Amino acid sequence: MTRLERTGRLAAIPAGYALTSLITAVLVRVMPVRAVEAVSIAFLSFFAIYATMIVWAFGTRRIGRLWIIWGVAAALLAGYLRLPVAGTVQ
Description:
This protein has helices at 3-30, 35-59, 63-82. By secondary structure, the protein is mainly α. The protein has one domain. Helix 1 packs antiparallel against helix 2 and helix 1 runs parallel beside helix 3 (63-82). It is elongated. The mean pLDDT is 92.
């Protein structure tokens, strides 16, 4: 394993946390339940999602592809969160 690959995998720890936070925020928005229940369900699923992200980061052979996938996913999720929520005043 090269130094760049090792650094990429270690940097995936905070990046995976950030991406998991975006996924959790989108889950809260799209769940068809009350807000309190949506937050509880999303944040309980956070741990499973984050563990999956870290296992993926340390298990993949091509760290560059992982960073591209995570970057595109983060951009799409952040873009979705920028959309206005139906029924709210801005």
